[in-house]
Automatic annotation (TrEMBL):
Its cofactor is [4Fe-4S] cluster. Pfam families: Radical_SAM. CDD domains: Radical_SAM, SPASM_MftC-like. The keyword Hydrolase does not apply. It comes from the Bacteria. This is Radical SAM protein, BA_1875 family. One of its GO terms (molecular function) is 4 iron, 4 sulfur cluster binding. Residues 7-217 form the Radical SAM core domain. Keywords: 4Fe-4S, Iron, Iron-sulfur, Metal-binding, S-adenosyl-L-methionine. Signal peptide: none annotated. The keyword 4Fe-4S applies.
Length: 369
């Protein structure tokens, strides 16, 4: 198993290359606008950022937005990053910008994967959530074109009150579209996202158990975002399935957070959390623990990315579970899980508070009763 020292280097870097986007998604973290911001990182600044990312053990780099295709030099930036030995993927919006020509250019630039969002199993749910009629059809058409080019495709889905009861249909659609990875996000109320559209803690637990059971037979792989407690569910279910299982040293897992191996699908070998294996660069260069945790640690124009990630008090606090409060601070799964620091901040104003969407009662709490 390859060990990753998240105190030194992130596993994944998300760069919001622009906030410009033609969609009006209900949950948009970026509160995207139709036009590009005049203070976006320039092409030269982008290359400098990529050079620094290379020095941090070449983490995965995702071009995000907004819509990355609203930036004319995005494929040049991708090509440069690939030339530096960095694996690059992109999450474009499903708009008329997603042409076959753009896909071929991205393929030539060396993009390892495209990721599209599908938030409902049909046009009615997805287009309402995305705020744009025709988005569902454009997405499906784009995915099929990428298959023609033999480009791997990932589907991102935000679980919310709009689709929580549509999981079976969503899973069937992901299978039909022959995607390599289903990345399941759980709504964090930031940007345009609203708390009223979140699912309840009990629904979180139900969905996480459903995902684990579904993963046993799915034709694609599954990972979660903003649902760190999925790792706890996986460990619990595997222990219940075979109490004598020796394939995983669970005590070591809980101490180190190591739950798997580095693979080609973008899944980390140990639990990634906000500021802990994960870092986000905004369109204007601000450095955040994640795009869903809007507490700034610095700016790449003034501060070194590595310096901020490794040494800023914000990032160091997030990487130390002994700082966590409430039940997260005493939970036996805190090293492998840690709860969503973004959701804790969004709902309590404190990124070190307990995960509000977790129903699990730690052993330390049960011992008191």
């Amino acid at each position: 198993m390859i060990k990753k020292d998240y105190d030194q280097n992130p596993f994944i870097v998300i760069w919001e290359v622009t906030r410009a986007c033609e969609l009006k998604c209900l949950h948009c973290r970026a509160e995207a606008q139709y036009r590009r911001h005049p203070n976006e990182l320039s092409f030269t600044e982008g290359k400098k950022l990529i050079d620094e990312i290379e020095t941090m053990d070449r983490p995965m780099l995702v071009f995000s937005g907004g819509d990355p295709l609203m930036r004319g030099d995005v494929f040049e930036l991708a090509s440069y990053a690939v030339s530096r030995g960095i694996r690059v993927s992109m999450t474009p919006s499903a708009t008329p910008n997603v042409t076959k020509e753009a896909m071929i250019t991205g393929q030539s630039a060396g993009l390892s994967r495209w990721a599209f969002s599908i938030d409902g199993p049909d046009e009615q749910i997805h287009d309402y959530f995305r705020g744009t009629e025709g988005s569902f059809k454009l997405t499906v058409d784009a995915i099929r074109t990428l298959h023609e080019l033999n480009m791997p495709v990932q589907i991102n889905t935000v679980i919310s009150s709009f689709n929580v009861n549509e999981l079976e249909r969503m899973a069937a659609l992901v299978s039909e579209l022959k995607c390599v990875l289903w990345s399941v996000f759980f709504l964090v109320p930031t940007g345009r996202g609203e708390e009223k559209h979140m699912i309840s803690p009990a629904e979180h637990e139900r969905v996480l158990h459903w995902l684990f059971n579904h993963s046993k037979t799915a034709e694609y792989d599954i990972k979660t975002t903003a649902a760190q407690h999925y790792r706890r569910v996986v460990i619990q279910q595997k222990k219940r399935a075979d109490a004598s299982e020796k394939a995983i040293d669970y005590q070591d897992t809980l101490k180190t957070g190591m739950i798997g191996a580095v693979d080609g699908l973008g899944r980390a070998p140990k639990g990634v959390n906000d500021g802990n294996g994960f870092v986000f660069i905004s369109h204007t260069g601000d450095i955040y623990p994640s795009g869903l945790l809007p507490v700034k640690g610095g700016n790449v124009r003034d501060d070194g990315l590595a310096e901020v990630y490794r040494h800023s008090p914000l990032f160091q606090a997030l990487r130390d579970p002994s700082n966590y409060k409430g039940k997260c601070g005493v939970c036996e799964y805190r090293y492998v899980c840690g709860g969503s620091r973004s959701r804790a901040y969004a709902l309590t104003g404190d990124y070190l508070e307990s995960e509000p969407a977790c129903v699990y009662i730690p052993e330390a709490y049960r011992a008191r009763s």
